[in-house]
Amino acid sequence: MYFTRDYDYSKVFFMNQSKLALNTIRNLSVLTPNGEKFICAASGLVKHENNLYVITDDELSLMTFSLKNKSPGHSIALFPGILPTEPKARKKVKPDLECLAYIPANLGQEGLLAIPSGSKPNRQIGSFVKLQNGQAFEPKKIDFSLIYETLQKEFLELNIEGAALTSSSFVILQRGNGASAQSALIELDILGLADDLQNNEFIQASRIQQIKEVCLGNINNINLGFTDACFCNNKLFFLAVAESGNSTYNDGQYVGAFIGYFDNAGKAVLISQLDSAFKPEGLWVEGIDSGYRAYIVTDADDPNLVSTLFSTDFKF
């Protein structure tokens, strides 16, 4: 067996009833040869030193932004080609990058791992981008088809939408926004994953160590599902979003979102609901004197609405 499965359907614990306010930092845009272009579908982010790195689920590039100013960022092509501009045609062929994770230098090569959702056969190719002196370069194709083939035997509707490096494993998160409503933590072997990133084009299915299916509760009877995660101060924080529609392909109506974490017993704890008008999709958390600061990017599921970077401070 590649893994064991640990079911946990215990009642989710809610800490705060009041909503957590988000502070706007900037709208996301990048410079292109044709001028400034706004980003409309941010899906993952990493904060490293004075830079913010963002991927979207409908682009072929990694976007980088300086946190020292609000100037437009710039993009680094991860894949060749150009996506169609017509929304339905674009949706059909996009790589659907949903997660961005930081890989430290002690694992062989410092860099950023962009991970696809796996929700369709053409959504199984990611990218590893090297980091050096604050610069991202040399993107390398990473094929997730072997590991996703195994996961598809366990999840009727595979939809990976979060990832984080913890102290003991590399975790990817299954978002249970399909009809089967299967949300889960999937733990991968860190050293094996690092070896694949350095020496292989494929992530091997044998890297799977354990799958833990998780019940995150609901908002107005709409199930919550993961959209991202971040490991900070020995705690795995996550975003949980309720979206109607029961589809991993078609966007549903955004209902609401929580920020939460897993306690020492592995139980999901929802810290507070987020006061966010649009779907939070990317998360980065860091410790501050008063507790924690979260950076969040949103996706309005509308090509006419720009993605925004927010921050919020919290403690518990």
How would you sum up this structure, described in words?
The protein is mainly beta and 316 residues long. It has one domain: Tachylectin-2, Chain A, CATH 2.115.10. Helices cover 8% and strands 52% of the residues. It has 3 helices and 26 strands. The protein has helices at residues 87-93, 145-151, 190-199, and strands spanning 4-8, 13-14, 20-21, 23-27, 29-32, 35-38, 42-48, 51-56, 61-66, 74-77, 97-103, 111-116, 125-132, 135-143, 160-165, 170-174, 183-188, 208-214, 218-219, 222-232, 235-243, 254-262, 268-275, 279-288, 291-299, 308-314. The strands form 6 sheets. Strands 2, 3, 19, 20, 21, 22 and 23 form a 7-stranded mixed β-sheet that branches. It has a 5-stranded mixed β-sheet with strand order 1-18-17-16-15. Strand 9 (61-66) and strand 10 form a beta hairpin. The longest helix is centred in the middle third of the chain and has 10 residues, at 190-199. The radius of gyration is 18 Å and the shape is globular. The N and C termini lie far apart (38 Å). The mean pLDDT is 91.
Topology of helices and strands:
Blueprint (H helix, E strand, L loop, with lengths): L3 E5 L4 E2 L5 E2 L1 E5 L1 E4 L2 E4 L3 E7 L2 E6 L4 E6 L7 E4 L9 H7 L3 E7 L7 E6 L8 E8 L2 E9 L1 H7 L8 E6 L4 E5 L8 E6 L1 H10 L8 E7 L3 E2 L2 E11 L2 E9 L10 E9 L5 E8 L3 E10 L2 E9 L8 E7 L2
Parallel strand pairs: 1-18, 2-23, 3-23
Antiparallel strand pairs: 4-26, 5-6, 7-8, 8-9, 9-10, 11-12, 12-13, 13-14, 15-16, 16-17, 17-18, 19-20, 20-21, 21-22, 22-23, 24-25, 25-26
